[in-house]
Amino acid sequence: MNSDVEIAGDLLAIQHLLPPTPEHPSTVAGFAGLAREIAADRAGWAALVRYDPVTRWYHRLRTGPGYEVWLLSWLPGQGTGPHDHGDSSSVLTVLAGELTERSAAGERRLTPGGERLVTPGRPHEISNNTLDPAVSLHVYFPGLTRMPMHPTTDHTTQHTAHSTTHRAPARATAPLPAPAAPLMTPSPTAD
């Protein structure tokens, strides 16, 4: 016997020796993996995307124990304003288009396939500064319950927080437009 395979046999043939695959992620790496898995399944999210000329559009894709997954669309010029995610961490993945993140660390272009981890209480601002629509995926853990807004500063580097409560808006049901021709009817937004 010269190898572990000869001793134990083919590990893929004996599934009972492998640790169980968790149904839901529980680590940062697991949440990043969940974001990549959902992003790769374009057929599972592309038909859901809507565009709202007034504000960013939101759709909750999934929830699980201690997390939630949101799909957002951004028309040119739309953005968040400076904010943080309260006690939640998040993994942000751009699915289509390009977004810009501003924070104390500076300005960063976010393009499809890239991931950003945002830690609790870390102020940042996301915007679509291009001429094309963008779509992003956000995994919040624990689920997002607060989104404190911060006053705007020249470099989004120093903030005095005041809290607001983030509530999920109602789901939009209009068909998905082609990115070159965004839907021009507003979807419901949070109060």
UniProtKB/TrEMBL annotation:
The lineage of its organism: Bacteria, Bacillati, Actinomycetota, Actinomycetes, Kitasatosporales. Residues 150-191 are annotated as: Disordered. InterPro entries: CDO_1, RmlC-like_jellyroll, RmlC_Cupin_sf. Keywords: Dioxygenase, Iron, Metal-binding, Oxidoreductase. Pfam families: CDO_I (PF05995). Transmembrane segments: none annotated. It comes from Streptomyces alkaliterrae. Belongs to the cysteine dioxygenase family. This is Cysteine dioxygenase. Fe cation binds at residues 83, 85, 124. Residues 170-191 have a biased composition (Low complexity). GO terms for molecular function: ferrous iron binding; oxidoreductase activity, acting on single donors with incorporation of molecular oxygen, incorporation of two atoms of oxygen. It comes from the Bacteria. Gene3D superfamilies: Jelly Rolls. Coiled coil: none annotated.
